[in-house]
């Protein structure tokens, strides 16, 4: 087998996309594609045929590209983990265990996070400025997060958790997620509920792929996923302390939507979702982002 092309170290979604392209694992879709049903359909058919990752560069009505199908083959997962692309899934799992059971690598706080290049606050916040796909006709709406994560903090211990919980666009500045009972985000939410406080929360889209992988993998309670990601990379993840919510957030994320979840205010409206059948309207938590940050001048959205 041909040796993999040597890519630059991966520390954000852009360097991951570059590594995929170098290894012939990316296709740029230049034709106009509609975020409503079409984008999801094309990605699904492509994934069923074991096609490459896709970067939609011409999403109808937007100048923000959408990146999909990041990890749908073991070869791409290996590239994301900066491992030999010929490793099998079980070999990659073994590697993951080896790396994450050694020394944890604490994140590094930086002063000027790239994600703060564009900041939109208050009434100006409109999640529809991002090209979130609408997956299936029976879905209740568009999904801002399917391949990102929610950042929350334990109010007692300060433990930061990253959890991949899909987030649907429920209003101009309202996102809804079902955080399944017992998940770490739910454990945090219960603590805020007992205190009678709102829970600071930030939805993050487009990061170093190991952050998404750590956020969607079972990691013990009180273990910081930034440290897990650091141990996978063998170097610290760059983060910053939000001056809005005090949360610790990834410095080079593409998009962050930040606000508070009211643990007592669960959404009762909205259609059940075919994309996410587990989402039942009664258990959606409601978040009100009051600030959005889009990294650099031209951010990249990511989707499942
Ligand atoms: C693409 C994707 C979407 C997911 N969506 C949800 C979701 O909407 N709600 C949920 O509770 N878990 C969801 N999960 C599962 C959680 O990410 C997973 O259980 C993870 O371990 C949760 O983090 P936690 O252990 O820190 O709570 C999803 C996983 C993936 C890979």
Protein architecture, described:
This protein is an alpha+beta fold. 22% of the residues lie in helices and 26% in strands. It contains 7 helices and 16 strands. The chain is globular and about 50 Å long. The structure holds flavin mononucleotide. Residues 146, 161, 163-166, 177-180, 183-185, 216-218, 276, 304 line the site of flavin mononucleotide.
Q: What are its keywords?
A:
Pnp Oxidase, Chain A, binds flavin mononucleotide, 304 residues, 4-stranded mixed β-sheet, globular, 2 domains, 16 strands, 9-stranded antiparallel β-sheet, alpha+beta, single chain, 7 helices
Can I get a quick summary?
The chain has 304 residues and is α+β, with helices and mostly antiparallel strands.
Strand-helix topology:
Layout: H1 13-22, E1 26-29, H2 38-48, E2 53-56, E3 66-68, H3 74-80, H4 89-100, E4 108-109, E5 118-121, E6 143-145, E7 149-153, E8 160-163, E9 167-171, E10 174-178, H5 184-195, E11 199-205, H6 209-215, H7 225-233, E12 238-241, E13 248-250, E14 255-267, E15 284-294, E16 301-302
Parallel strand pairs: 1-2, 3-16, 4-12
Antiparallel strand pairs: 2-3, 5-15, 6-9, 7-8, 7-11, 9-10, 10-15, 11-14, 12-13, 14-15
The structure holds flavin mononucleotide.
Residues 146, 161, 163-166, 177-180, 183-185, 216-218, 276, 304 line the site of flavin mononucleotide.
CATH fold-level name of the largest domain: Pnp Oxidase, Chain A
- What molecules are bound to this protein? flavin mononucleotide
Beta-strand fraction estimate: 25-35%
Strand count, sense and barrel status of the largest sheet are: 9 strands, antiparallel
- Low-confidence residue ranges: 276-283
